[in-house]
Amino acid sequence: MITTTNQRTISGCTVYLDDADDLQIYAVPQSPHIALDQDGKPVFSLVQYRRAVDRVSEADRATKLGGGLLTFSVDLARSKEQDDAIRQALAADPALQAALAAPSADRVDYANWWNNEIGRDVGKLALALKINALPVDDGTVAIAVDGEDQAHAGEFLTTLVGAGKVSMTGDERAAFMAKLTMDGAALIWEMVHKNLAAIWVGYQLSFTSRLDGVKMICHCDTLKVFHALQTQWQDLKESGSAHDHYTATSETHTYSHSQSSSAGNVISKFAMDTESAYVKVVPTAGPDVIKPDMIAQLTTQGWTMITQFLADTLLQSTNPADFTTKDDPTLQTQLADAGGGRKYGGDDVSSYDLKQVDETTIGEFNVTFDEKATITSTVNPTDNLSNVLAGHEVKDFCAQIELDPQFFHYADVQITCTTNFATEPVDAVKVHVEYHGTTQQGRIDEVKDFEFTKADAVPKTFSTYIAAPDQDSYTYAVEVFYAGSTKTYSFTGKSNGTELVLDTDTLGVLSVDVQAGLVDWTRYKAAQIALSYGDGALGVNETITLTGDKQVANWVAVLGTKSIGAYNYTVTWVDNTDQQIKGSGQTAHDRRLVIDQPLQQSMNIVVIPAGSFGGDGLLQRIVTALRYEDPEHHYEQTATATFAAETDSQTWTVPLLDTNLRTYQYQTNIFYSDGVTRIDPTWQTTDQTVLAVGDRFGYRVQFIPLRLASPPGKWTLATLHVEFSDPQAHIAAAQDFSIDDFTKPVFWRFRMDAQDRHTYTYQLTLFSADASQPPMVLPVLTDSRQVVVLEPTA
User: Fold this and answer.
1) pTM surpassing 0.70?
2) How confident is the model over 270-299, as pLDDT tens digits?
3) For residues 536 and 551, what is the distance between their CA atoms, to the nearest angstrom?
4) Which of 28, 182, 431, 718 could form a disulfide with 134 if both were Cys (CB 3.0 to 4.6 A apart)?
5) Alpha-carbon distance 503 to 476, whole Å?
6) What are 384-404's pLDDT values in tens digits?
7) Is 447 helix (H, G, I), strand (E, B) or coil?
8) Cα dihedral sign, 276-217-595-632
């Protein structure tokens, strides 16, 4: 694909390289010029006309006695001299020679060809370079004659036709016709004869390019932004506006944006102010290779992603009537449109509230794009045209005519077919043209057939006498024959124009370039795009798969219809676990379809263990299986959390396609230190963001020795023996505790088999400060309480 990295100017042309083929070059002249016909003559005509004085009233003679007609075509074709200069300059470039000499796995490998086959011959390298025209996606061309255009006609110009969309063919040829006033015709006549610049032409072209040698990192700490907004959100809502301006050096990135009362812009402003978010564009190929304007463009794309993420995550409309899930459950912020430009809930800060803090506000937004980024670039060839006849005889292109009705009895119609027979599925186009009229002398019947093929695609001319000024229309019938198909397409029309243009859309061919845009290929394995146009037998379908290694594909379909209209597509993402995430159906008209990865919210579940770990039958390990299911999108996420200590905890993050579906299931297996295992027989369903899993059969007893300190000093030490026995479940537990601080409680834990069987025994032995006194052994007591106060007597 074309790349704007290392673009240069050679011989008046802007020259671009290809990111995969070192011999592939794209070039566009920086200045448009008058187009040449097949004989090398300028496509230019200027006619001055005047009426007989006796046919124009005295009042109209100052403005309607005559005028002029100016017709011409301009294009961006390169000359042979320009191509030769480009070949010589690039072939002598040490950087290109070094790239060709080194073997490559991710680009076309020319190492053997350059090093061995042509022996590093610069002349042969120059001849091998493939120079193509710029692959234009869209664009316009504008014209001004004597300083006036269609919107500002007056002194010199009355009517101008032809300005507007470009042809999007190789040379970007555009045809114009201007009707001139008497003064305008006289001025143009003199300026053409004197080789002066009378015509201004400006192209505005856009094309898709791959920016090489760049890495973009987007980060946002949502919780930090939320806390920053909490303290000032109400004031912002009351004032309804916020304004700021940001710039940065082009070394890392440039971001310039005027903040307004838009809720999305306000939260992105806080993200920047609090340094909670950033976009870094790193020119890995060096600042001299990556231009500052390209860094600025990528940075703006990154901030747009962060702004949308923050708006989706933190904001909710204050007017629920503006949005209901029945309208579209995927639209929830000011980014949604209700039609006609009206935003759901408005666009102002006052139309939104902050959501309550929950699991959606504690995550982070991290996206890294290490692959080559697909962007839209522009180029603007512009110039004032002088010496338009390039040395040819003026008399061959300029004429002065006296208006006589006889001059309107003849017409030439130029028929042009702009189809690229080499790349588009069209074998031939046949055109049948008829003219029929009646004069006082009899009928005029002119019929002629033309054929356009790859071998003969030059414009054709249909010439005929016209019976009268009001009989100037002709009819035409077109039949299209498609390559590799038995399908044909025919249509008819009627016109009185002097040009009949048959372009790709008119001939019923749909061609769409499908490209990967901003995609994190470390997360996704592939994107499957199902495309379709039409229904039933007339419909066409195609499935295209994009991967990190194949990010561009072309869909060419023979429609056999004049009205192309929109096509449909659905994207299914396949992640690295082979999980398929199917998006909703979309409709598009663009001939270049860029697929970006979906921006998703996430659900964060904190899983913590509950119970006591250790020997003597206590917990050894807790294993919990987690499962999230979204049947509507055929989407599932699973995880396993394992715990071996009370301090363990884990966070399970689930990217959401349906942000309203937040329930999940879990199943817990418990392993005890004595070999006993408990397995939950069923899955449990919950929507808790903090999930405690563990031993439901653990029992804890708290012994409080506070009364052993009364009377003070009598007892200095105590021992406590506890026992639990459940013969039915073959469970026996016993433990001894030494108590020397009567202010601290003693905790004892044991495992049960049933919730209703937890009776235990305990026996207390007291030791006095006088060593001569024997210890006091109290009787064995039975209890089932979880809190027991130890008494110094029975």
Assistant:
1) no
2) 788 888 888 888 877 666 666 676 677 778
3) 30
4) 28
5) 15
6) 887 778 778 888 888 877 665
7) strand
8) negative
